[in-house]
Amino acid sequence: MFKKSLLLVTTLASLSGAAWADTERWFEVEVYLFERQGSQLEETLTLPGNRHSRQPIDMISPLFATDITGASLGLEGCNAQQWLETPAECDKQLQQAQVTHPSQIPTTIGAPEPKYATLGAGTVLLADSQSQFGAMINTLKREAGHKSLLHMTWQQSMLPRHQAKPVRLYAGEDYSDRFNEDGYAVNAAPQNETSVIPEFNFDLNFDEKQVTPIWALEGTLNIYLNHYLYVETALTLHREGSKAQPQVAGENEMTQTPYLHNIYMTQNKRVRSDEIHYFDHPNMGMILQIRKMEQPEEFHSPQSQPDETTQG
């Protein structure tokens, strides 16, 4: 009798686990980030310790990054879907290639046409026409000092914190041509003054270090499910300014030198689905909504959709 009861409990547990795996919960996420221009600088001198270490999902790079070595050699790079499904492999290819980025990333990021999540696929970037913040953004733009940074919408499966992958966000101007990663201005001396027009070196060593873009806004957004929905931000806003430095080493007289300040937004907040949430910061702000959506298994391909005159 005990063996039968144990077998029944084991069977029910396995069925329960299978049912949980099949009820994957998908949500639609819309985010809008902006800068408060003219506000007093709130700079953190040390990098926050709770930055995400897990490989992030990147939906922006496939739209704008160009592999110039791959193009010159006739190689095929990862498409947008491959970036979502196998980000580690695509990132490895990216590190081995010479990649060029535009000097400016637009505020609105979206797929060229409406998209929907499908079973077995990863996070999917939606078109701008599928977003819902349009009227609210237009109202905010009328406020003094308001500068739009990033607006995008996507669909993703929500996982527990130990499984969730953050989404990489970046936008705005690339400061790497004028500033180093430490914030100080790039020295003009190392530049090749004999050549006005930059030339591509076809004998370039692939291991040569490339200049990493320094975007006006960059970081990650991690959303996970632990009975409730939680949102973790690890974002950096770069603001051009100045910093006092000794005019001559060892002397007390100071002078203002160009400097790129780091402004961090690092928060962890419990949220409710379908509600619009505001993440506040003295120098920036984020508006986010996580919406319930029709689950991927409920979508039908155009071939299988019934005629519009047919009653469902």
UniProtKB/TrEMBL annotation:
It comes from the Bacteria. Pfam families: CsiV. The keyword Signal applies. Residues 1-21 form the signal peptide. Keywords: Signal. InterPro entries: CsiV. This is Uncharacterized protein. It comes from Shewanella insulae. The lineage of its organism: Bacteria, Pseudomonadati, Pseudomonadota, Gammaproteobacteria, Alteromonadales.
